[in-house]
Design brief:
Helices cover about 50% and strands about 15% of the residues. By secondary structure, the chain is of the alpha/beta class. The chain has a six-stranded mixed sheet, with helices on both faces. A hairpin with a 6-residue loop joins strand 5 (about 140-150) and strand 6. The longest helix is centred in the C-terminal third of the chain and has 64 residues, at about 220-285.
Amino acid sequence: MPSKKSNRRKTIGRKLEYTFKSDVLFKMLFREHQHLLKRLIAVLLEIPLESIKEFYVTNTEMPPEEIGKKFCRLDINMVVDDNRVNLEIQVEDEGNYPERALFHFAKVYSASLPSGEDYSELSRTIIISITDFELFDCDEVHSEFRLLEVQRHTLLTDKCCLHFFELPKMPEVEAINPANEKDLWLALFNAETEEELEELTRNGGDVMGEAIQAYRGVTATDEFKSLEWLRAKTRRDEANALSHARKKEREHWQGVVAEKDARIAEIEAEKDARIAELEAQLKNKQ
């Protein structure tokens, strides 16, 4: 179904200058506080934190020249034990996100096979997408997709897994169960006001308190402010370029239509003139 933006009410209050939906903040915070990222991944994938033996981020770099490129994506690639895990937050609904996530899965999955190795050595690849728009016609915040036979539901392979978390379906922060750490994390990503952060600080326990403290530390740095300004500028430039391209396209087709209308009018005029000429010839013969 076409994705849609939820109309659910957001908490009114002091609006945050930067939210956890900022991909620059998202990447910087978890690059610098990887123990929080490890906990987040464990919670989202519902695996015991202590069961994770190997964990590291493979794309920690954030060069300004990359952030300044058009259509640059700021995701986090990880190795979690024998799995390749990719985490991304997506704010804008461009109408093709499921296909984009599947394409990204294919790239990450195929890149996990060293040259010359057998296909059986491909790593299990998990894509985690947190979206600020609705994707699926259901009430559930979390949807998990795997490769299944359509009638028997037999699993083709366990090496493909895509998780989607739709933030607009989250309840208000006051309704979050403090014992549900997954909902606390998602509420943190969904927070847009100081009041929501204060509520999470009060009732979210030590983990939420540490995550919010880390947020305040990152957003106070000159590096973050500089990269966030560059990211915002790039997005404005992209929007302006897209708007200009659409305007040029409209002008082109308006020109095509105008040219066609003019040609039709010209043909009609020629036809009327020819009819008048024939009528005059008939009249003269009579």
